[in-house]
Amino acid sequence: MKTKLILAAVIAALIAAFFFFDLKEYVTLDYLKSQQSALSELYANKPFLIIAIFFLVYTGMAGLSIPFATPLTLAAGAIFGTVTGTIIVSFASSIGATIAFMLTRFLFHDSIEKKFGDRLTGMNAGIEKEGAFYVFGLRLVPILPFVVLNSVLGLTKIKTITFYLASQLGMLVGTVVYVNAGTQLASINSIGDIASAGLIASFVALGVLPIISKYILNTLRQRRQA
After folding, report:
1. Do residues 104 and 4 make contact, with C-beta atoms less than 8 angstroms apart?
2. pTM for the whole thing?
3. 113 lies in a domain?
4. 89-147 tens-digit pLDDT
5. Which domain holds residue 86?
6. Angle at 203 between CA 199 and CA 206, to 5 degrees
7. For residue 153, is it within any domain?
8. Separation of alpha carbons 135 and 149, rounded Å
9. Is residue 7 situated within a structural domain?
10. Domain-embedded: residue 21
């Protein structure tokens, strides 16, 4: 109990410090775009250092369930490009999600299971029936925001490794689309740039992402049942 209280206090203090010192201003797309030249130069000179810092920031924020994944994902495209940005975000987001999952399970699982275990029956039934595919589906076609989903699944009986692998695969399509959109958004320097083919394609991809995700999920489910 003492360990849980100390850990909960540390997490609360970190989240409070993030907002108290207004650190969110440094993880917005506007700020990162304004620093793009400097960041690009740093990345060119010290690529591993910049990747490591970005990876740790992204993982830490995801692990603490601070909801700034979208601007950071777009920023990854602006700074690192589609391929490198996708790799960084894919692992950082999955590891961060798993940290949030494990923290929730360690801190709250027992107490919530006793009081509200019946409310998790449906989700536990889905996990028992479909396992990793259930989590994969929730990631591919998100019903809940990911910061909420990470914590909710931490209260279920799913294994940690299953959660991680399903999350890594389930979030990959969305990660690619958002990182690629970031590469196009970073190129806007004038009004004329807004009509560029690459940017339009990125916005179209963002718009059809839910449709694509549902199609992939339905196709995979049909093959599993065949």
Report:
1. no
2. 0.82
3. yes
4. 999 999 999 999 999 999 987 776 666 556 677 777 878 887 788 888 888 776 778 88
5. 2-173
6. 140
7. yes
8. 10
9. yes
10. yes
